[in-house]
Specification:
globular, mainly alpha, two-stranded antiparallel ribbon, about 190 residues, SocA_Panacea, three-stranded antiparallel beta sheet, Putative phage-associated protein
């Protein structure tokens, strides 16, 4: 995988901008990131973030992004802190009030459209209502209750839930592209 913390931070920053520049509850932020990947896959066959997704007790989560929010990685080496402040009082928000959409150079126009769609559908939803919505198998059939632990949500399972044609082959393509990006970055 070729996880890009700068791109993940820009995704959350975009949602914070849509939230009037106000910080988002961590649970809501991670749900929106997950739903944005899902929306992007439904539209193009590719997620916005290249990372593992897991089922947790509060629903589906992009694993590495959640770890960054929780301070498990150094945000200064990755570009994360260029866009987001450290988590405080269960919230994550913009690192600077002067950030604009023009600063979000990792996100393509198609990805911004997916983010807009997710915000239109879920931006006004309360954190816990959104959490509950992601627990409903009619809405997110790929999420499985892991109890007090977590379990991976295979990309194929998400793609099958979204009725992506040839989901297994598409998931392989996504992984191959991620591997190619990783190789290019290491050169």
């Amino acid at each position: 995988m070729s996880y890009d913390p700068r791109k993940a931070a820009q995704t959350i920053a975009y949602f914070s901008m849509k939230n009037g520049g106000l910080p988002l509850h961590v649970v809501k932020a991670v749900k929106l990131v997950y739903l944005a990947d899902r929306e992007s896959i439904a539209r193009s066959g590719f997620p916005i973030q290249d990372e593992t997704r897991v089922s947790m007790k509060h629903g589906p989560v992009n694993s590495t992004t959640y770890s960054f929010i929780n301070g498990e990685y150094d945000p200064t080496d990755s570009g994360w802190s260029d866009f987001l402040s450290d988590r405080s009082k269960h919230r994550v928000g913009l690192s600077r009030s002067d950030l604009t959409e023009d600063d979000l150079d990792e996100l393509s126009e198609a990805e911004i459209q997916a983010l807009d769609s997710v915000w239109e559908q879920f931006g006004s939803m309360d954190t816990w209502a959104l959490r509950d919505w992601t627990h409903d198998s009619d809405n997110i059939p790929e999420w499985e209750d892991p109890g007090s632990s977590s379990s991976e949500i295979p990309l194929e399972r998400m793609m099958h839930s979204l009725a992506i044609k040839e989901a297994n082959a598409q998931a392989d393509t996504v992984r191959s592209l991620g591997y190619a990006k990783h190789i290019v970055k290491s050169l």
